[in-house]
């Protein structure tokens, strides 16, 4: 790759008139790609775009129009079609006054035999906690065919909440200062984040596939509400999700489809899942299960009854019947078509994570007061054979079983890509003792992980303890930020967890990396 990627970095633009937030592309197929820009005008403006080959002749291969309208917050999108598979292209928008957007670079998906396909995988990018150095490194690396963002592209909290005012670093303020509730709020938050130069650069040079997690609406969201939504003071949940999803689809190079599949030649099928707003059942709360227990014996009895009852309720959903059927059929079709890998781009961990009760008991008194109650509850849950995180697939065991059974029935080479936790994970996924797939769980871009909640506990001790109590977990890092570099070949899939040196100062340097591999046909992980 050359040309645009070697040029001077895009200068961040925001506010004012004209092209305000660079360019972006997404939703690639073998013959098309969705193009995005934003042009703020005095009135609705019809933009033109051209797509050119990336060679000395710069031949125009596609052109068309896109409307920048006040109704879409001046964001303009268009699908450029008639492109060749597996090719890099440049594109640019032009306004009627002759002004032009930055040059963008994009790539179509390949067809036929594919010897290698590389993806950069991100999640959990909280602007207030630091600089998006993971984005900067991936852009400078210039080695990827596609970027995946698995959610928490931004956070909905008001200024001074998460992070608090003391932890917010200089020059990383957000807009609006209040929590995002209405359409104007979500639009302003997107504008605030999209002003970041490293995020603009990443969008400028790679096509993206993006899916939302919870913070694009509100923390711990599900189909009927969220932990961070109060109907009495913040209006209906439907009104909030309508506003959030509308702004999301305006400001990002995404389609309106809640889930979708992307074919990477004969090498892989990538499935973008929706696990938050469409069908997810409400999360369980261990604190609620324990409420009313006056003694350890009473609390353990309550947890045991929960474990054997409500926890295993087969009606609880993560995907819903329509999406589950679509995925199951897609896995079978991908394998029957001879594709090697079936890759899930989704939000939350599928691997089973349990706390080490002895370790939690030993450190609870040293933890911040705000988390001591949660640690005690986690310790009791662990002793009762319950998992750590009820917001992940661990809180939906029947739904997870349905997905893993569909993968086994399809004889899939399943790879789950997940974000959400802010930490790095590698799992062997099993069902009834059978190897059903592997999972690469990505660390956050900036959001803090376990090291924040358990200060003074050496990260290597926490990692070893968690692995000891979680048989599917083959490796974890609980203290570093960064992104995943995932490479697919016909023989193997490799994940490099790349750790940025810092986030509180702007720098694209890495502190190190860790590599895990799975060979096609094994559904098992190995080091290196």
Automatic annotation (TrEMBL):
<keyword id="KW-0378">Hydrolase</keyword>
<feature type="domain" description="PhoD-like phosphatase metallophosphatase">
    <location>
        <begin position="119"/>
        <end position="497"/>
    </location>
</feature>
<dbReference type="InterPro" id="IPR038607">
    <property type="entry name" value="PhoD-like_sf"/>
</dbReference>
<dbReference type="InterPro" id="IPR032093">
    <property type="entry name" value="PhoD_N"/>
</dbReference>
<feature type="domain" description="Phospholipase D N-terminal">
    <location>
        <begin position="21"/>
        <end position="108"/>
    </location>
</feature>
<dbReference type="Pfam" id="PF09423">
    <property type="entry name" value="PhoD"/>
</dbReference>
<dbReference type="GO" id="GO:0004035">
    <property type="term" value="F:alkaline phosphatase activity"/>
</dbReference>
<dbReference type="InterPro" id="IPR018946">
    <property type="entry name" value="PhoD-like_MPP"/>
</dbReference>
<protein>
    <submittedName>
        <fullName>Alkaline phosphatase</fullName>
        <ecNumber>3.1.3.1</ecNumber>
    </submittedName>
</protein>
<dbReference type="Pfam" id="PF16655">
    <property type="entry name" value="PhoD_N"/>
</dbReference>
<dbReference type="InterPro" id="IPR029052">
    <property type="entry name" value="Metallo-depent_PP-like"/>
</dbReference>
<dbReference type="InterPro" id="IPR052900">
    <property type="entry name" value="Phospholipid_Metab_Enz"/>
</dbReference>
């Amino acid at each position: 790759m050359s040309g645009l990627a070697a040029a001077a970095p895009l200068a961040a633009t925001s506010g004012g008139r004209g092209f305000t937030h660079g360019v972006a592309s997404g939703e690639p197929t073998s013959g098309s790609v969705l193009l995005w820009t934003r042009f703020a005008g005095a009135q609705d403006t019809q933009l033109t775009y051209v797509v050119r080959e990336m060679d000395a002749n710069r031949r125009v291969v596609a052109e068309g129009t896109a409307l920048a309208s006040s109704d879409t917050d001046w964001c303009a999108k268009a699908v450029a079609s008639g492109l060749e598979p597996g090719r890099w292209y440049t594109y640019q928008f032009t306004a009627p006054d002759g002004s032009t957007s930055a040059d963008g670079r994009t790539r179509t998906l390949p067809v036929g035999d594919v010897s290698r396909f590389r993806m950069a995988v991100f999640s959990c990018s909280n602007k207030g906690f630091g600089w998006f150095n993971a984005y900067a490194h991936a852009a400078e690396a210039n080695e990827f065919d596609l970027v995946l963002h698995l959610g928490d592209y931004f956070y909905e909290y008001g200024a001074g909440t998460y992070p608090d005012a003391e932890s917010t670093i200089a020059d990383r303020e957000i807009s609006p200062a209040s929590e995002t509730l209405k359409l104007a709020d979500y639009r302003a938050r997107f504008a605030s984040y999209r002003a970041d130069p490293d995020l603009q650069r990443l969008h400028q040079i790679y096509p993206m596939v993006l899916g939302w997690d919870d913070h694009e609406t509100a923390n711990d969201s599900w189909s009927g509400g969220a932990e961070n939504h109060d109907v009495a003071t913040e209006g209906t949940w439907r009104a909030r999700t309508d506003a959030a999803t509308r702004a999301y689809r305006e400001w990002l190079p995404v389609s309106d489809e809640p889930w979708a599949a992307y074919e990477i030649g004969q090498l892989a099928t990538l499935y973008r899942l929706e696990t938050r707003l469409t069908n997810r059942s409400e999360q369980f709360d261990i604190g609620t299960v324990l409420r009313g227990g006056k003694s350890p014996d009473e609390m353990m009895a309550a947890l045991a009854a929960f474990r054997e009852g409500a926890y295993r309720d087969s009606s609880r959903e993560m995907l819903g019947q329509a999406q589950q059927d679509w995925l199951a059929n897609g896995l079978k079709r991908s394998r029957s078509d001879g594709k090697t890998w079936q890759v899930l781009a989704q939000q939350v961990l599928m691997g089973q994570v349990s706390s080490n009760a002895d370790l939690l008991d030993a450190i609870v008194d040293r933890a911040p007061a705000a988390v001591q109650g949660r640690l005690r509850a986690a310790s009791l849950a662990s002793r009762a054979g319950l998992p750590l995180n009820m917001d992940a697939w661990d809180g939906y065991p029947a739904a997870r079983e349905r997905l893993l059974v569909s993968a086994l029935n399809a004889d899939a080479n399943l790879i789950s890509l997940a974000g959400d936790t802010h930490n790095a994970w590698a799992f062997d996924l099993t069902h009834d003792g059978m190897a059903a797939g592997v999972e690469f769980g990505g660390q956050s871009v900036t959001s803090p992980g376990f090291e924040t909640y358990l200060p003074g506990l050496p990260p290597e001790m926490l990692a070893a303890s968690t692995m000891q109590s979680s048989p599917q977990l083959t490796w974890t890092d609980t203290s570093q930020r960064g992104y995943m570099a995932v490479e697919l070949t016909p023989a193997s899939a490799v994940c490099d967890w790349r750790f940025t040196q810092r986030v509180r100062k702007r720098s694209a340097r890495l502190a190190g990396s860790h590599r895990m591999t799975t060979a096609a046909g094994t559904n098992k992980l190995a080091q290196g």
